[in-house]
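To: structure subgroup
Subject: Chain for Friday's discussion

All,

I'm putting the inputs and outputs inline so they're searchable in the archive.
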Amino acid sequence: MSVDFEFKDKYNVYDLISIVKVLRAPGGCPWDREQTHSSIKKNFIEETYEVIEAINKNNPDMLKEELGDVLLQVALHAEMERESGNFDFDDIANDIVKKLIIRHPHVFGDVSAQTEEEALSSWDNAKAKSKGMKSQSESMLSVPRELPALMRAQKIQQKAAKVGFDWDNINGAFDKLNEEINELKIAMAHGVKSEIEDEFGDVLFSCVNISRFLKTDSEEALTLATDKFLERFTEVEKLANEIGINMKESSIEELDALWDKAKKIKIRD
């Protein structure tokens, strides 16, 4: 069976758009043809995280491949909308170029920005103006609820801080964390699940607040902490096997002793 696609030694973005059309056309791929925005939305998230993995590993070849996978997702969604007569890939490119021009008045307009902070401020002001945002709460509501919870919390807190709704220093943030921990303990004493969940969320939100003052990304910090836990747990398991300890039958004191040994073995603190 032949398909209407030109084979080449070197392809470009328009060849990608073309092959996606072929895959979704009658006589193409049954799987690709049946997909919708909703059916592949999680694929987009997965591919994006694989790009982050490639960046973290500082692997250019992997990064090139994973960026291609993300671009495929864009092409698929664009093709679905072209089929519906709403927009196509060129319309997407057109809109993002126009947005970049509007959001960079310090490059394409008469606004001055000599530092990174001034450039970000210029971007934020242009964004608010283009979207007709008249209040900071509107800007905060524009942060997608679908973001990872820690990332969303940090973004919303940053926006609140821009209008002065913030502690003077980190001491206020720590005091608030201690207050929320005490409220969590009270909720635990009451034994009401919804109340416990509410107060536990406040504790996490307060921790994110502290991360801002420390100029630390809370999402990245938790990822590193989880990595560290996994490394130490792997070492604990190894130590337990070496001395013939059954972890399931061991006391927490025995396991904690192994944990302390693992901490000394691992270079990372």
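Points worth raising on Friday:
The mean pLDDT is 94.
The longest helix spans residues 218-242.

D.
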